[in-house]
Amino acid sequence: MSDGWVPGGFSAITPTGLTTVAGWIKGSFALDFRPFHWDLWSSIPDDAMPALWVVTHIPSSYSVMSIADTFDRAKVIVAELDALTDWSVVTFDNSRWFHRRVCEVAERYRGLIYHGSQTITPWIERA
Fold first, then answer.
1. CA–CA separation, 114 and 105 (whole Å)
2. How confident is the chain (127 residues) per 10-residue block, as mean pLDDT?
3. What is the pTM of this model?
4. What's the CA gap between 69 and 111, in Å, rounded?
């Protein structure tokens, strides 16, 4: 893709544990399309499950947020996150320092951003 996003696999911490996920990668972030509720996936007829774009911080394997919108909108939101800091040096232990700034980005997209059973994230849950 001309905007720098490339397809690839990466490690992500999910409600079922650390797993390899296929998605789109750019810098320290990845996007993958994931079902909204992992635990309900098999109980929905024809696997007709609402899905979200999950933003994963690749160096830590933790998700940052989930986005209920198009891939193009998800890329715009990730660009805002990327502009906050050098994410290559962010770890689980120092992630709490970014809580407020990540929440400010999420607030600008209220109604599109979700944090719940589909994501495991230290940026929102560890204030």
1. 12
2. 88 85 95 71 52 89 87 96 88 76 88 64 50
3. 0.80
4. 10
